[in-house]
Amino acid sequence: MKAAFSILTACLIMASSQAIGGNAVVMRKGELTEHNYNEDYNSMVYSRTAYGCSEDGKTLYMIVIDKSTDPVYGKSAGCPTSVMCEIAKHFGCWNMSNFDAGGSAEMMIDYEIVNKTTEATPRPVANGWMVFSIAPEGDTRLASLEFDHPQINLQAGETFTPVILGYNIYGELINKNITDFTMSCPPEIGSCNGKVFTAGKIPASALLTVSVGNLSVSKTVSVAGGSGINGVLVDKQPAHVEYYNISGVKCRKPDTPGIYIRHEGNKTDKIIVN
Known about the structure:
- By secondary structure, the protein is mostly beta strands.
- Helix content is 8%, strand content 38%.
- The strands form 7 sheets. Strands 2-1-7-3-4 form a 5-stranded antiparallel sheet, covered by helices on one side.
């Protein structure tokens, strides 16, 4: 019996210091592959796990999509791999491989499963990709801030105290709840009093900024149906149409497949380009 081997594949394997086997390559060079459509497992609406990389190969993407109801993020119906690829593309992913889903779709951070799995409790999984920091230990110097909130949607008059995360220069989380901060915001969305934000009485959307020393971070706050972009537009002239990608970055009228936000006059809605 004879066996044939691919020299190219063998060389790639030998050059890799780490490797993990998955289901299929679902995105290659920014384009979706046929594996998104010719396999029922990939084309069905389901939970997802995938790994990918940027075009320059310097950024690793790890994505988990739930098929469940999470107490923080709400209900997630899951999605086919084609939608997963479109989401990843918006954040710079260039190549992506699909992996096992269902109860295997688990995201572990600091030795704890942080997502809501399809099963009652997380279960053991045969394989996965672990990332460990090799930064020097003990660096507690604050270098950047983040809001610990996926989105901030408030009703008119509602109060809100943000939870602020602190990171060192290596991107390591060193403080899960910074309390020594100040806040500021434009008056159209509300007011800040110490560490408490109070939403205004009219629908609006703008940035809430938190500062610690010379560091600051901003997050869009939407009040009672605000636009979700960065401000309220009141215009008696013919409405001007603006487009934004799902990261909130302004763009031209989209012709590339994906999810976008269209802002026209006082109206904002999401559009899907196929």
